[in-house]
Queue: 3 jobs
Job 1
Amino acid sequence: IWTEGLFSLLFWSLGWLQEVSETRDCQVQQFLIDWTDRRILFHGSHRRCCDNVWNEFFEQPICLPQTASHEQMTVETLEACGENGQLQVVVRFGTPWFKKFGEFKGADEGGSHATGIKGGRLDERAAGEGRRVMRRWIKVRQPLLEKAQSWRDQTLQAFPNLRWLAVHIRRTDKLDQCRSNRWEQTELCSQTIAFCRALGCNAVF
């Protein structure tokens, strides 16, 4: 997990949140995602992130008590919560306790013999469930939203009437995981244009 990217870490967290909140007799009223481990890739980047990298990108899934903000949740504060019974630390990771949310649908073509990877096509039902879960748990931090809005205003304001499709062609490790990533550039362009038209978009970046 430590060498995985942001979205892989996010989907592991969503898998845990869904499992704990929906399939167990859970009395928990609040959750705290802890990405402070120094092995997480973001801690080694060129820019300084929050001590808890989750807080760099997202609000905590369910708000913490008003007496302590995200930045104020020190080790001492957490230890005090544990001593008075307000904190339950969960250190289990992955299967059999919980699965990665989505089970790699849309990220892996399926048919792999790798443990824990189901994969396959991302159908409308799975996409709808993904939207529901994201709306339930994920709230992007306001400074990041403002930065994205600023980029959009500066970059796309010259094209106010276009509907954009953002495309990220994954290579590196995904060349082995997904055969379609090995397509030549002409085929990738053809597929992108077809998908863009199917969504009613008229521009790509």
Job 2
Amino acid sequence: GISFWDPSLAAELFGATALVVAGALFATADLRPGSPIAAKEEEVLEVGSGMALSFCAVGSGALMTLFFFMKFAIYVVMFSFCFGGASTVAQIGSACLQYLYPSLRRQLCSLPEIGPVVSADIVASVPAISLVAGWLKYRHSSIGWFFQDVIGVGFLCMLQRTLRLPNIKVATLLLSVMFWFDIFWVFI
């Protein structure tokens, strides 16, 4: 049986609580003046009723595509996960490094379509790429979950930082639609 004092349950509880705290910090970063993780105005996407409904349609289309073309689509999903994961973890790391070490704000170069690259971006890219490399190497082993979870946390924090629900009506619509979406696709 499972003991109430099982260390793995305590670690799971700690991890879940830490994720909720991180999500709250990222979602409300723009409300705190001078927050290093606050999104720039052009990075914020306000979710309207139409977009809330389209999450269901786009998600259904993605699941159907994966079902019928899994043999090929899995590589697109893996590439997106690796590239997006490295990008989100590097952005979070860069923002924190620039806040903690102002000397890392020095611009090294400017890349077309990307913009200025500062020292913190390069430093933060090392652990981000290492996480992705670790996931690629260990994804089929018993420790692969760790790399996948850290990358997933980066995705979730960036999503909460970027999307804005303007009112409770849109939030209720989005959560209701996604509730039924989840039930439909789990039991179909």
Job 3
Amino acid sequence: MRAVCFTLLASAAAFQMPATPQTKTTTTTSLQAFGGKKASGFDASTQLGAQAPTGFWDPFGLATDISEEQFMRYRTVEQKHGRIAMLAVIGYCVPAFIGTFGDTYLSFSEKVKFSDIPLGYQAMFKLPTLGVFQILLFIGLLETQFPNVNGDYGTGYFGQFLEEPIKSKKLAVEISNGRLAMLGILGLLVQDVVTGGSPFEVQSTVTSYTAL
């Protein structure tokens, strides 16, 4: 639990409203965020994501002299991982604090109930084989049939196609929340392994100190 708390606290600033991107000679738009180019050439430091609390942070120089196509690829992957991480955090929290479908059968053929599936990574070893296949098939369907179109997969924002500057603002918030969720799910997974399947269980250790 301490690992989870540390991770979330260290990243809490990602939930705040994104600050205005670093001022250059042009204004950042959602087109730039997904590979747009300035008149003087592509500059990753002016794109969405270069926002509070770190600003433009690229310690490994991955964005140095990067092309717009490669940046678009990086941004698409980041968004996808952020969305998966947000769902994963919810997938940890809901069964732990709300519950699942109890004794309802998950698989009638293998007599597996929802209550038989443990929380976290251990669930992978309890799911029926056909269930794992269905999950992989669904992932493959999403990957091949729903390409990312400017971050909204061509479906808009809950069915609405937003205009600027609202679209860029919401995309920036999503990027921040996705980054926080990636750190959060990492903390949950580590705590899950360390505690043997109890990522939310608070464990305290009392250490005795001898006065000098």
